[in-house]
Amino acid sequence: MFTLTDEVIDAAIDNISGYIVSVVASQTGRPIKKVSEAFFSSNTFALLGDKETGYYWDSLNELIDKFSAEVL
Questions:
Q1: Which domain holds residue 59?
Q2: What is the distance between the alpha carbons of residues 4 and 12, in angstroms, rounded to a whole number?
Q3: Domain presence at residue 1
Q4: Most buried residue, 5, 32, 62, 69, by most Cβ within 10 Å?
């Protein structure tokens, strides 16, 4: 049975973060390093990293759009 633990949530946040950075870098043609820096200082990442918000359950496309709106 799958149990949602802090470790599982942390791993999900890490994976989601990497995916968002990769997609936005690809869509914008910006270097991964620049997009990573922008993402990790963004409101989107702050919300994603706050386990109380549950953003790790949200649509990846919605999170990508939210981040893109912050940096574009």
A1: 6-71
A2: 10
A3: no
A4: 32
Tokens of 44: 């989107």
Structural domain includes residue 20? yes
**Residue environment code for 20-52, b if the CB has 16+ CB neighbours within 10 A, otherwise e:** bbebbbeeeebeeeebbebbeebebbebbbeee
The answer to whether residue 65 is domain-embedded is yes
71 burial (CB, 10 Å; 0-12 / 13-18 / 19+) is: middle
Give the total number of structural domains in the chain: 1
pLDDT band at residue 19 using 50, 70 and 90 as cut-offs? very high
